[in-house]
Structure formats: C-alpha cells, structure tokens
Amino acid sequence: MPRGKVTMKNDYYAILKLNRNKIRCMKTNEIKAEIKKAYRCLAMRWHPDKNPDNQEEATIRFQEISNAYEVLVDDKKRQIYNIDSCDTSSDRWYHMPMKCEKCEKILPDLVAFLQHGMYYKHPQKQR
To answer: Model-level pTM greater than 0.70?
Structure first.
C-alpha cells in the first residue's frame, strides 16, 4: 500500500473512479456494494481478453484495478489505506472523521451544545 502523498498512480479511489468523501458517508455494506460495482465495470472494460489489440496496457490497468479492489473492499485494509494515504500537500486530511455533508450540517449545533450545555437555544431556531 502506498504511504504519504497520494497521486493518481496510487490513489485507489481514483483508479476505481469513486468519490472518497461520498464513500465515507455510506454504511459498510453500501461501501462494499459501491466498490464491487465500480470494480466489475472497470474490470470488464480493461480485462486483457477484451483488449486483444492493446493487451499490454490492459494488463497493467487490470492489475491496478484488481489491487485497488483488493484493498478497498476489505474493511481493515481500507482503514489502513485511508490513514496512510492522506494528502499532506493540501488541506485535505482524508483520515479525519466528519468529512461528509451530513456531519458538517450538525457539527455547529453539536459544538454549541457542548459549549453551552442543554440550555442552549440555536439563534435561528428560537421562533
């Protein structure tokens, strides 16, 4: 598994054409189904037997796709990959929780509740 900066060459989510943040918001069985669906589609497209005129590139791509699937479909391997593959060149730290829209919507209310206790009333919801 790659360590450090993620590039297109070793970004398993990009290889399988999956949105990393969307995957984060799904349940485990939904994640596996989405990964399996993406794998099957790309494996059929890049299988060496389906590409007789471009067999060398197809073999390389098929191996990349198979490696990505093997890591991402296994929960423990995916968790390790997510932690090890954070992109430190930007503000995107993928191994941190709370990287989905649902979480970002409730986070301000949660923080305010924790700061003010159960007597906190949201300023926009006081009507």
So the answer is: no
CA angle 65, 42, 40 (to 5 degrees): 95
Please tell me the distance from the alpha carbon of residue 118 to that of residue 65, in angstroms, as a whole number: 49
- How far is residue 25's CA from residue 28's CA, in Å, rounded to a whole number? 10
| Residue 13 CB burial class (10 angstroms; 0-12, 13-18, ≥19) | buried
Q: What is the pLDDT of residues 34-57, one digit of tens each?
A: 999 999 999 999 999 999 999 999
Q: Which residues of 36-49 are buried (b: 16+ CB within 10 A; e: fewer)?
A: eebbeebbeebebe
Give the Cα separation of 89 and 87 in Å (integer): 6
